[in-house]
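Hey everyone, long-time lurker, first post.

I ran two proteins through the pipeline my lab uses and got sequence/structure pairs for each. Pasting them in order. The first:
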Amino acid sequence: MSFTVLNVAYPLAPVGPDAVGGAEQILSHLDQGLVRAGHRSLVVACAGSKTSGLLLETPRPPGALDDETRRQAWQNHRNRIRQALRDWPVQVVHLHGIDFLEYLPPPGPATLVTLHLPPAWYPKAIFSLPRPGTFLHCVSRSQQSQCPPSARLLPTIENGVPLNQGSARHAKRRFVFSLGRICPEKGFHLGLEAARRARAPLLLAGEVFRYEAHEAYFRREILPRLDKERRFIGPVGYKRKRRLLAAARCLLAPSLAPETSSLVAMEALACGTPVVAFPSGALAEIVEHGKTGFLVETEPEMAVAIGRVGAISRETCRAEAQRRFGLEQMLEKYLELYAQLVEGNAEQRRGNGAIWRTASKGNVSTAWSA
């Protein structure tokens, strides 16, 4: 059975293999996986996005990302979604943005919402949406545990990353590596301090988005800590990122937020590179302390762990990534869920209802009509 899926990105961040955000990278993988499997993939995303399926592009704001910019972006997304539902036989709408309530389509196709961010960051109303045929799911066990019981909540689908691209061997260098959105909750200033304390070179890669808080954080906390040994190299594309991950002594993940996942940690392990992280959310699930890296509580402990990563087996890191974080495993689960949603919507239209197994307590409930 082939079907048509409309993936809808967060309005202010481009989608593609070189995307900075994890949600945008996952959406890109889903788009590619749908096309490879012979399905029709439509993607609503801002300018600068690269897709395998049909891109329904919205403008990307050129300036600061403020409230007015958001309101205009929401309207642009609503217009594109309306166009897609009018012009194509969309069977599943898959929403990825934290602000999805602003452009949730009217009743019609089955709708799936992936919660890429901590549940507390979303309005509580998402767990009791009145729109029929609307479901949510998490990307890690730790994230799922923070959600209230809800008939809308489906079983977790954990994120995955491409593994074969990380198999190339690179000579290990002295530098440690950090990567991500440059913003306060990622804690990169603490990683810089830990690297300085450990007398280790550090390369920090990522993008400073045009939010006032992000730019202020970069000016106050990152720039003063840079020197010849600790450098900011800006955004990096997929291939360069993989080369840096493979060559790094370790990946530092000093996040202060309750991470729902960490694609870069998974990619580092796939490259045979251990991870030193704070046990924030799902990072405590991804990193096995003493086996694939170290979980630490403070910046001084992070500095000590940098000096100990030589004891971590690179082959063990690769093997664990192969066992746990494969992209194909993730894609298979999503394609199966899409098929269930299509069939469930068809059953609901025929008046037969649909039965779903909720993830919160493992019980069976008639979530479709809830």
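...and the second, right after it:
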Amino acid sequence: MKRIYLDHAATTPVDPEVVKEMLPYFSEVFGNPSSPHALGQEARRAVERARAEIASFLGASPDEIVFTGGGAESNNFALKGIARSLSARGKHVITTSIEHHSVLEAARSLEQEGFEVTYLPVDAHGLVDPLDVRESLRSDTILISVMHANNEIGTIQHIPEIGSIAREAGVFFHTDAVQTFGHIPTRVDELHVALLSASAHKLYGPKGVGILYVREGTPISPLIHGGDQERHRRGSTLNVPGIVGMATAVRIARETMDQEGARLAALRQILAEGILARIERSRLNGHPTRRVPNNVSVSIEGIEGMSALIDLDAQGITCSTGAACTTSSVKPSHVLTALGLSEDLARGSLRFSLGRSTSEEDIHRVLDVLPRIVERVRALSPSYRAGRSFETFLYPGWDRAEVERL
């Protein structure tokens, strides 16, 4: 049975070319890039080439790229580093209710340190209103953090508009671009950001490496102490193979992003429209058009998303119910409930995230399998069958006589 992998928002397979470029730095060019000898300096040159590649992709200076251990560290570094650096100037931070947990938990940690955080709401599509950002600004606001695109529903925020508001107010602006970096344009000057987080494993690079873009002149305190690496901004021996791998993944993304994005958007449309047409009482989560090319998030009434996921996995189809970092939680998604979904409907959600290996044949396989799984799960659900007997639950086009026979 062919396995169909549709969980690229959680992680991607490492591209073979990326692996090839990384291999020498495990056993041949293995020196510590902070060492002054030849082997260490050869590793240092590889790091700086990688830094230049990534900076060019962002439209940034190489000195503005700080290598980290991944997206979660980059987000924590951005929020805590700015807040602690500017605490004498102000203690107010603005973010949104649908951020990744690495931002939300960092914000809550700052609250315990005496900072105040405003969590902005979103509309039914998951968009924060830039006017809400403007109206939330205070004289002591020091940082705004709004994700570029949501990891669960794929909605792309109005980042350039928010960035302009932040710049006019003299407030530093951070965006979590983990889901967009390498998939849609993320030029920092066009986004008007002072800080941007990205992670290699979301674009066919290795796990355990990421970057934080820090615009020149942005004051930021180190999150990790212990050395003078990264211009004294992050202590720790650099992950040379990972850094080389990330740069290679970025180079490949630069060459393929536009074409691949268009291909995935077309497949996404087939999948989304097919699910909505074949499964009654299903809905698309997120904005219908302002979304990353590969994301299809749906909520289906009368099912548990985790049960459907297990059934799909048994059929060789891999997807998720939302963010990979929260799959052990019994709580419904904070993102979906922020959109106004009930807890039951939020629990009946599935996220399909497409990638380079996804074919149209794969999409049609999902559209063949998923409706049958939903039908079987609903048949075993007394609450769903009971709910369908009420006229208030009827959708246009349903025949009341047929419903009452159920």
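Reply from user beta_strand_b:
Welcome! Quick read of the second one: The longest strand covers residues 295-300. The mean pLDDT is 93.
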